[in-house]
Design brief:
- The protein is mainly α.
- The protein has one domain.
- The two termini are 17 Å apart.
- The relative contact order is 0.21.
């Protein structure tokens, strides 16, 4: 399960490096949240992860080229991670 988060975080870090400052900062924030989830602090639930997924979808719309591709890849990994979160 954490391999999906790690892959998503890696994609977001790559995207942040090629994005405009404001988008890059937002991508880094989501990457940091995923790093916290990897450590289990806090334990994420569907609503929290959905919020990050929605933010990533909006950020992907604000990018293009390789940056958008990285965000798209991160979304795929994060969506796979979300599917594995146990229901409360």
């Amino acid at each position: 399960m954490t391999e999906h988060l790690r892959a998503a975080r890696n994609e977001l870090e790559a995207a942040a490096g090629s994005a405009d400052d404001d988008v890059g900062a937002s991508l880094e924030e989501v990457a940091n949240a995923f790093a916290e989830f990897e450590r289990g602090d806090p334990t994420p639930d569907h609503a929290v992860v959905d919020s990050h997924l929605n933010e990533l979808r909006q950020l992907r719309e604000r990018t293009d080229g390789r940056t958008a591709e990285h965000v798209g890849e991160a979304l795929e990994h994060a969506e796979s991670y979300r599917e594995d979160i146990p229901q409360a």
